Amino acid sequence: MLNMEQVKKWLHSLFQIIQVPEMKILPGHIAFFLVLSIIPIITLIGFIASFFSISIESLIQVATNIVPEEIMDLLMPFVTGKGMDMNIGLFMVIGFVLASNGPHAIIVACDTLYDEKDKNYLHTRVKAFVLTILLMLLFFFCLVVLAFGNSILNMILQMDFLSHIHTQLYWAFLFIKYPFAFILIYWIIKMLYTMAPSKKIPSKSVTKGALFTTIMWLIVTSIFSFYISHFGSYDLFYGGLSSIIVMMIWVYILSYVLVIGIAINRNNYHQLEDTSTNN
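-> structure tokens emitted (279 positions)
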């Protein structure tokens, strides 16, 4: 059982880790590349839709009714093309490579915290690509299911053949959304925290950080979802930029929480090392 002195020592150590220069700049770095990853994701969705002969116009109509208009204005050029060609393919590859700089920064920061020398560049880059895929999937899930999930479901349930079970489906979605989201986010975040350091670390040392990050991501995203669903006049001061500003703040907070989770894990790893040494 931890006493107050141990708690203070743990919090002091956590604060010192967060003050490491790499940790101070990491949230903004991750946030930028998370937002950048939206473009290759949207481009890929547009290509898949055209490949399966799904109407791009219908997807745009659905998205326009869900996503703030200002954000859709930015994304529209990436989903209204005629299909995949060399230029679009090259653009997607470049976007993916640039987006991988965020996870690459996470790897470098983790190696600094865990006192591990960098692996060769190719090894680090390959790992960064894997982590990029995990983060992009997770970010897309949070955006579509948690942030805009209720709006998307309401649109689907407007279909005539679902009208008689509208209420049941809606409440079923609300009932399973957060338990499923908790399990998925926790699993991916824990995998990311375990894979990021070049040093092999025990999975149990990242449990607290993964739990903290998962819970905070759910809370922050719920607040973001509630805000965009219930406040239509938040553009009083910023006009058309308001939706983008709100989304950027949300992504930055998610990134900052992710970084605090790394610090928590490093703190726990240090405690486990001390315990094993004393034993």
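The first helix runs from residue 4 to 18.
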